[in-house]
Write a structure and sequence with these properties.
Two copies of one chain form a homodimer. By secondary structure, chain A is mainly α. The first copy, chain A, folds into three domains: 3-137, MgtE N-terminal domain-like (MgtE N-terminal fold); 145-245, CBS-domain, CATH 3.10.580; 269-448, Tetracycline Repressor, domain 2 (Orthogonal Bundle). Chain A has 22 helices and six strands. In chain A, the strands form two sheets. A three-stranded mixed β-sheet of chain A has the order 1-2-3. In chain A, strands 4-5-6 form a three-stranded mixed β-sheet. The first copy, chain A, is elongated. The termini of chain A are far apart. Chains A and B meet through helix 1, helix 3, helix 12, helix 13 and helix 15 of A and helix 1, helix 3, helix 12, helix 13 and helix 15 of B.
């Protein structure tokens, strides 16, 4: 639905909610896709949301709940009584149920777990045992596997048995007598080959799987690299224990991109979905305090050179340009390196080569900008020595920031630390301080106290 | 494959290439997945790459070529003779062939189009007619559709006919007598229902499709919202004319995220995959020049207030902290708003509410940081009025930058301009200048010339 259609629908249903015209309301909501209904709920006030949500069957309520952003999901589950929440969890796919369940407050989850159907309870216990950012943490247990010795007819019977539980499936995975993943059969082959064909005769044995403990970022990279739509998850004996669907992978890709954006911008990641001004302020304060501290160190640096500024007041004019250029160069270099490492376009095999390239880039742009600034300053203030001094400082500052901005993320990556940590606060603040030091030292050394 | 495995494989095959041990080389490469082979080629020198690539069958060469990053893909196609390139294009899926074909130099593409198989030629002519950033530009023509009046048995025959051409398919789309999309049938239903069942009796009629002219970003949003794996593409008569697969959607998501990162960092988007220092320098220069210009304007602003700085030299100490805090606040606000708009977490229906929240956030953080800075300055320089002046200035600067940083992207979005344009250069540079103006005006008004 477009934003316009939402608005129209909102105007239509709001009076129905107010007038408690529930039958009419149910009719208006019935044709909606769960995703649209979820979006609609996000645009309602809390009270209205509760009224609408209570009209849904447990199955539909569950589908809607998994599509809603975490803060609103939590607000809805808080308002549900234990019995209704249990009904909803019983209906959901194991991975979606785990997501909702693991966001419940501890005391409540202990109550709920006892009310669930025994099968669902076991699944939730297993899945909540994995770290949320691993393959185990995002996998579901709804899949079909057949023994390699069975026939297509037997495979079809197995699919029929599970067809209620498994909503979408495009592949049947093949296991040996020990449950180890040995192949994959497409639905197309099941459809086209004779019914008594043995699975082992039509299966593809090169099946790409991920380990249950694999980092979700690595899972996403594998899915992208091999253009997969489903990934089987195996344990350390290579036994098939779960599956990850492409929509969960897309969530991971979005999550990781948002994380990198947040780091670059110096805000906490959870903030993106947050609406309370106080919580947002708190999420942004840390970087502001880093900036404040950095700014105070810069003040101390300038104070240290106050003799030079007293002699040549124009030195203060160029503090902003030195800072801005150092900052820009550093952000450009670090962002490109961080993004390149994230998408795999920069390989750590060739780190040295990349660093060299970045140094050349900084040198070229430094010389160009330095000469330009030098000219402008010389003519504006009719002071050639000052122009040369400011220009040379700018070259040094750009060269330094470019090197620093590309080196730090590569260094972090080398030591398996998330390189995106180098974005935002640290590089910018360090560049500010060191840029000022370089600038004021050069000018003082050559112009003020030669 | 892990980076370690690549390195090992590289060490293994490099001597084979040098010694022209092509048979041995073919044996080493045979078990590799095309995606791994593509990665391997990216790590070879140009000459080595040509040797390895010439060993591949046209079909495998095509699969590898579609997985390689654009600059290296172009270098490979440049080295292929027309006949070989034609063979490869004949083998590829229509969307992949279009990608490679549309990157060829104009004169060459005119030669190649005449050499292609007639069927492929027609497909390429049709697909290159669509804008590359629309549904038409990323769709392929390999899909299976059946008439709603036909039976499962007939559908299976149609799948059999197309099973060579269509590699992966999980759904069969259903059309009416005019070719209009009316439903979808899952492979599961084809497998489980009796063979003489009519398609119209088992099809799902709520099938989500995209218009051929739809922006690729909107297509990606629809795929994410409705958890799709394949999207049918329709023309303005709702006729089914193509399909988009999930791996192409993931490419779009990555592309859009990279675009936003590039805008934030102030580099050209193409740069990410670029390796030549000169080209990288050129891609980064525009923002550096914006920064240089902004810095010179800042210099003029400070020069305008040079009388104040002569009287209170310490004013120059706090130029960096004012600039850094304004910059940080602006980047935080704009990034969160831009990202929120991109992921749909911020809805334009509630722009006013979001702006108000951002103002509160800026006010809270401004007051906290302003008071902190005011205290430090008062004690450090034993100058209470200066401390109060600097603190109040910081509050004003943070309030202004927060408002500006969130307002501009929302404004751009309102007028359907990509809000990510507001990231990076413009907001930061404007904030620097206006921050300095606010700071120096306040101090001059109340402390220097009361």
């Amino acid at each position: 639905m477009s934003q316009g259609e939402y608005k129209k629908l909102l105007d239509e249903i709001k009076p129905m909610i107010e007038n408690k015209a529930y039958e009419e309301l149910e009719n208006s909501l019935a044709p909606l896709h769960p995703a649209d209904l979820a979006d609609l709920l996000e645009h309602l006030e809390t009270e209205e949301r509760i009224s609408v949500f209570s009209l849904l069957t447990p199955e539909r309520a569950g589908e809607v709940l998994t599509q809603i952003s975490p803060p609103i999901q939590e607000s809805i589950t808080n308002d549900l009584d234990d019995q209704r929440l249990t009904q909803i969890l019983n209906e959901l796919d194991s991975d979606d149920a785990t997501d909702i369940f693991s966001r419940l407050p501890r005391e409540r989850s202990e109550v709920i777990i006892r009310l669930l159907n025994p099968g669902v309870r076991e699944e939730l216990k297993r899945l909540t045992g994995y770290r949320t950012d691993t393959a185990g943490g995002i996998m579901g247990l709804e899949f079909v596997s057949v023994n390699s010795e069975s026939t297509i007819g037997e495979a079809i019977e197995k699919i029929r048995e599970k067809s209620e539980e498994v909503e979408k499936f495009y592949f049947v995975w093949v296991v040996d007598d020990h449950g180890r993943l040995v192949g994959v059969v497409s639905m197309k082959d099941l459809l086209l080959e004779p019914i008594d064909t043995k699975i082992k005769d039509i299966m593809k044995t090169e099946v790409i799987s991920v380990d249950v403990g694999a980092d979700q970022e690595d899972v996403a990279r594998i899915v992208k690299q091999y253009d997969l739509t489903h990934v089987p998850v195996v344990n350390d004996q290579h036994k098939l224990i779960g599956r990850i669907t492409i929509d969960d992978i897309i969530d991971v890709i979005d999550e990781e991109a948002s994380e990198d954006f947040s780091l670059m911008a110096g805000v906490m990641d959870q903030e993106l979905a947050e609406e309370s001004a106080l919580k947002i302020s708190r999420a942004r304060l840390p970087w502001l305090l880093v900036g404040l501290l950095g700014g105070l160190v810069s003040a101390i640096v300038i104070n240290h050179f106050h003799g030079s500024i007293e002699k040549i007041l124009a030195l203060s004019f160029f503090i902003p340009v030195i800072m801005a250029m150092g900052g820009n160069t550093g952000i450009q270099a670090s962002t490109v390196v961080i993004r390149g490492l994230a998408t795999g376009e920069i390989s750590i095999i060739r780190i040295g080569k990349r660093l060299l390239t970045e140094l050349w880039v900084a040198l070229i742009n430094g010389i160009l900008c330095g000469i330009l600034l030098g000219f402008v300053v010389s003519f504006w203030l009719s002071d050639l020595p000052l122009g040369i001094g400011v220009g040379v400082s700018l070259i040094m500052v750009i060269l330094f920031s470019g090197a620093f901005g590309s080196f730090i993320p590569l260094l972090l990556k080398k030591f398996n630390i998330d390189p995106a940590l180098a974005a935002g606060p640290f590089i910018t603040t360090s560049n500010d301080i060191l840029g000022l030091l370089i600038y004021l030292s050069i000018i003082t050394r050559f112009l003020v106290a030669p």
